[in-house]
Design a protein that fits this description.
single chain, 247 residues, mainly alpha, 12 helices, globular
Length: 247
């Protein structure tokens, strides 16, 4: 267990040292500022007669969970799998006193954690903007809970990205497939019912099920089963492929 933890830290460090993750998070923060700027602009145009007071933190959660975090996760998984396969550096990880399962798991956990860190960073940014703008902070505890709950579906995104990386021959192809498959699934979620609700990407905003939900226990159990069943199936298939590959 200790070896798994240490290797996860090592893999996470690889990702954190890459500037592109910091840049993407900064771009997300800029979008938050622009969102607030829109409210200010409306107030100025109306001469102060129309003042929009909103929960910016919660408003940005959709953008964070549907756009920003998936992009970061896909990049992270591709960096740790397809890129290392192409650069022939994955052998170094496999030479450590770890089973292949632990190597794959540590890389997957690193991608999961960097997605969670991005979510927390966006929460902090939105909180600071909310504080400076003078908007109400009354709903911050509930909003924080929503951000924390929405970290769970990141595991499904990681599992999907790992599987795609296992069957891809290049980092570029892996990244492209991750994005295309994700967009296709989201299309099904939004426009094809009830089939779209059977795909795990329908639950990226997991908090809507648990916070203020009035769904019966059976429906809740089915949604939990879809999410975590998808993770189990995708991760198992990924490991089977990873274990059989000759690096």
């Amino acid at each position: 267990m200790r070896a798994l933890v240490l290797n996860t830290k090592s893999e996470l460090q690889k990702l954190i040292t890459k500037k592109k993750y910091f840049v993407i998070t900064i771009l997300g923060a800029v979008i938050c500022i622009l969102r607030l700027g829109g409210n200010v602009l409306v107030s100025k145009i109306s001469g102060g007669e129309l003042v929009i007071k909103s929960n910016l933190i919660m408003e940005m959660l959709g953008f964070v969970t549907i756009v920003l975090v998936p992009l970061i996760v896909f990049m992270a998984v591709t960096d740790l799998f397809a890129s290392e396969m192409q650069e022939d550096t994955l052998k170094a990880s496999l030479m450590r006193p770890l089973t292949r399962f632990k190597v794959m798991t540590s890389k997957s956990l690193a991608a999961f954690f960097i997605g969670c860190l991005a979510m927390l960073a966006m929460f902090v940014v939105c909180f600071v903007i909310q504080l400076i703008s003078g908007n109400s902070l009354a709903n911050v505890p509930v909003t924080l809970a929503a951000y924390l709950i929405d970290m769970l579906p990141i595991a499904a995104l990681v599992a999907m990205a790992v599987f795609i990386n296992m069957i891809s021959k290049s980092p570029t192809l892996a990244m492209l497939l991750c994005i295309v498959v994700y967009i296709f699934f989201k299309y099904l979620n939004f426009y094809v019912s009830p089939l779209g609700q059977m795909i795990f990407t329908a639950y990226s905003q997991w908090h809507k099920i648990w916070i203020g939900s009035v769904l019966p226990v059976g429906a809740m159990s089915a949604k939990v089963g879809i999410l975590f069943g998808s993770v189990l199936i995708l991760y198992t298939l990924s490991y089977i492929i990873f274990d059989k590959k000759d690096y």
